[in-house]
Amino acid sequence: MLKVLHLNSNDNSGGAAKASYRINSSFGKLDKILIDSKMRVIKKTTNDNDIKGGAPIYQNKLQRKLHPYLTLFFKLGFKPTTQTGLSTCLINTGLGKEINNLYESKKIDIVNLHWLGDNTISISEIGKLKPPIVWTLHDQWPFCGTEHYSNSNYFGRTINEEERFISGYLKSDLEALENINDLNRTIWLKKKRLWRKKMNIVCPSKWMENCVKKSALMQNWSTNVIPNPIDVNFWIPINKTLAKKSLNLDPNKLMILYMSSSGKSSYRKGVDLFIKSINKLQQKFINNENENFELLIFGDSNPFEKSKPFLKYQFLGPQKDDITLRLIYSAADLFVISSRQDNLPNVGIESHSCGTPVVAFNTGGLEDIVDHEKTGLLANPFDTDSFSDLIYRILKEKDLRLEMSRKARERALRKWSMEVISALYFNLYKKIVF
Fold it and tell me: What is the model's pLDDT at position 267?
């Protein structure tokens, strides 16, 4: 039996947590004689017996008290060089020793790292891990500095920060900035110095694999493209009329669905691009045609809180109940993703599995989700005229919309089912361990 331990900061909060949880759960579809897959997290919120939560067993009481504040501590004295997240992972947590003891006692054969923000485990501890390592990249942090995504602005001044993980965080990359303590360079150099053992990298999208192959840190490491899985037996299409009525929506109106983000991620998720695209959509409607359509928005922020769109809209707020979310996807006639930069967003896969076409910009891992002209449409990045044109096209062409709905569901069954993905991971683990 192959024994695998998945490591993630938590088991249910955020896209990376949900993806890693689904990967671990997918092995339930394989014969238990073949693989024993467990998950280790710091913050556990589910009742899954295959997941262990809590502070590392080798962490002392002082470390446990300080753990939630470690990231804030390392911000002191440094001007932040990124607006897209900060993870330093400098303090040893005791989790590395815990994992090594499991390996030495033959309780695990391999460790699969996932999202390690919030100082789940230190950079130094990662470098000292004894088991073979697979690292599933849910963002760019492993080959960047402190940032989780490389595309950001420095204090409102645009710099091609992407070149930093390619060049190796050269000081000259920051010539436009005066008197800056370059925390990103400090963290990246520490990773380079301590991560001597090459790891096996899993990229959920071809875009992420291309980033890894360009990176100064990991370009010579082994990479595999394996998408994130989804339970296609749960995320199923529900009759649209029934779904709309269940949500108290007008069954006679076509619904444009959008998930809105706030804070640091709103720029990367392109909330401003969505607002511009919806405003431009108004120019395409004739007479009172707009009365046939409605916006349906969920997420942690209302993008139209300050200015209302021309279309009627409903803001549903955050959605943590998957049963309700499945109804929302099914009620929608198309789902809109306006991201500037994304890996393989769960919402796109969930939407397809529920038979809902997607309109997105042709960027990042979104082309891994949307099969252009078949399961949705991809707009030129970041052309809001093109984006609004494609939204209008799907709304107006019923036959196209229905055909895309059917093919979206078929694509989910073929590419992202738990049976398909668990087999790909199992074959990778076998190749590494045996």
Answer: 87
